[in-house]
Amino acid sequence: MAPLPGAELVQRPLQLYRYLLRCCQQLPTKGIQQHYKHAVRQSFRVHSDEDNPERIQQIIKRAIEDADWIMNKLRMVPVEEATSQLLPSSRS
C-alpha cells in the first residue's frame, strides 16, 4: 500500500520530489514534517547528477518504499511514540 494515491504514477525525479513533499504534509507534527522535508531535499541534492535511467528508477522505487514504511509506522503508533522513533535527535 502506497503512502498516498498516485505513487504508481511517479516516474520522473520531479514527480517523486513533489510526491514525497506531499507525503511529508501527512505527518503528524511540524517537527517531523520539517525533518523529512529536509531529508527529501538533501537526498535530491545528493542525487542531482545521476543520469543513469536504471539507477534513477531504483532510487524512485526505494524512496516510495521508504515513504510507505514511514507512513505505515505512523499509523500503528501514537504521535508521541512516533516522534521519538522517527526523529533521530529525539532518541535517547
Automatic annotation (TrEMBL):
InterPro entries (UniProt xref): Complex1_LYR_dom (IPR008011), Complex1_LYR_LYRM9 (IPR045291), Complex_I_LYR (IPR052151)
Domain Complex 1 LYR protein: 11-68
CDD domains for the chain: Complex1_LYR_LYRM9 (cd20269)
Pfam families (alphabetical): Complex1_LYR
PANTHER family given in the database record: LYR MOTIF-CONTAINING PROTEIN 9 (PTHR47061)
Family indicated by similarity: Belongs to the complex I LYR family. LYRM9 subfamily.
Protein name: LYR motif-containing protein 9
